[in-house]
Design a protein that fits this description.
This protein is an all-alpha fold. It is built from 6 helices and no strands. The protein has helices spanning 2-26, 30-51, 57-69, 78-97, 108-115, 121-140. The longest helix has 25 residues, at 2-26. The radius of gyration is 23 Å and the shape is elongated.
Length: 152
């Protein structure tokens, strides 16, 4: 009987260990989630900055925001995910605004400099400020951030 009990205990212990190792392997830490999202956003941003050399600025921003909406936020802190959603919305608003500039082509920052000199400068600057403000919210939502989350 002692041998059977020993085998039973070893069997149960192995099941317990296997179940715990599966949980560890499938659970992503909040820090890993945030780093993954920010790394992917950085890649998407590099693409966005040059896509408008051959595509309308509106379509470029639309592609960028759709790709950001498809990022995996599972495992990220809720405050970070919420702040990032706000940032995506700010980009969506900029995308709608840029429909009026469908004839422009070039690197995104060059196009933004051109739009800033138009009659729509005030509205453009407001939308751009919103993008930067929502990015500050994303930064502030990272654990151990030196920024305070801005309240709306």
């Amino acid at each position: 009987m002692k041998t059977n009990q020993l085998y039973t205990i070893l069997f149960l212990l192995s099941l317990y260990c296997c179940q715990n190792s599966k949980k560890t392997n499938t659970t992503i830490s909040e820090t890993d989630c945030i780093e993954s999202v920010l790394a992917k956003d950085s890649e998407l941003g590099k693409t966005r900055n040059h896509e408008c050399e051959t595509t309308t600025l509106h379509k470029t921003i639309e592609n960028y925001t759709k790709a950001m909406q498809n990022l995996n936020f599972e495992g990220c802190p809720e405050a970070f995910s919420t702040a990032f959603e706000g940032h995506i919305s700010a980009w969506d608003r900029m995308g709608e605004f840029t429909k009026a500039y469908s004839d422009l082509r070039g690197e995104m920052h060059v196009l933004f400099d051109s739009i800033e000199k138009t009659k729509d400068s005030t509205q453009f600057k407001s939308l751009l400020k919103d993008i930067w403000d929502t990015w500050a919210d994303v930064e502030a939502a990272k654990p151990n951030s030196k920024y305070e989350l801005l309240s709306n």
